[in-house]
Amino acid sequence: QVLPERLAEGKPGQGVLSSFFTNNQKCQLMLLKTLETNPYVKLLLDAMKHSGCAVNRERHFSCEDCNGNVSGGFDASTSQIVLCQNNIRNQAHMNRVVTHELIHAFDHCRAHVNWFTDVRHLACSEVRAANLSGDCSLINEIFRLHFGLKQHHQTCVRDRAILSILAVRNISKEVAQKAVDEVFESCFNDHEPFGRIPHNKTYARYAHRDFQNRDRYYSNI
């Protein structure tokens, strides 16, 4: 319902390099910068490759127009990340969207996720994406005028996960909340592949360094 071209055609939308519309060009350039420079994304790309799911920019990303205010999505049927070129506002926004969707792609790679039949599976991945993508960073919450609450990060993760579920599933808010509550503790504490909650780019760089050295540590045991 939020990716109209895919619903109508039953196939992936235009590839990243196949269109020259202004929005598409901007989307492509921002995506390229994100893939080359963002520490969250660089770690996730390495983790995907390490798990046997290497990511190809032209194959696995597509810049498209989307309905509503959706910024992006993971199309499990094609293993493709959709970037909503009409809604992604700037480079920082692109960084968060790509990170968020790559977490879904990583979950899809490492586990048998029933995206369409088990809302708890979707809820778990949405909790992880909200927790690890930087979407609930202090600066983002200040821009949303949400701050100063006890355990604020957990509250933000829960709320963002519920909103994401409601954006892609035709279910009640109560059902979404129940699914998030049931999986929250275990999925909030699952920090793979970061090993920690990366609250900012510095944390993400440290996490990437640790991931790159992970096999070296194991080999010395």
From TrEMBL:
Keyword Protease: yes
Keyword Transmembrane helix: no
One of the GO biological process terms: mitochondrial protein processing
Family the UniProt entry places it in: Belongs to the peptidase M76 family.
InterPro entries: Peptidase_M76_ATP23
Pfam families listed in its UniProt record: Peptidase_M76
Protein name, UniProt field: Mitochondrial inner membrane protease ATP23
Chain segments annotated as coiled-coil in the UniProt record: none
UniProt KW keywords: Hydrolase, Metal-binding, Metalloprotease, Protease
Highest taxon in the source lineage: Eukaryota
GO CC aspect terms: mitochondrion
Naturally occurring in which organism (per UniProt): Neovison vison
PANTHER family noted in UniProt: MITOCHONDRIAL INNER MEMBRANE PROTEASE (PTHR21711), MITOCHONDRIAL INNER MEMBRANE PROTEASE ATP23 HOMOLOG (PTHR21711:SF0)
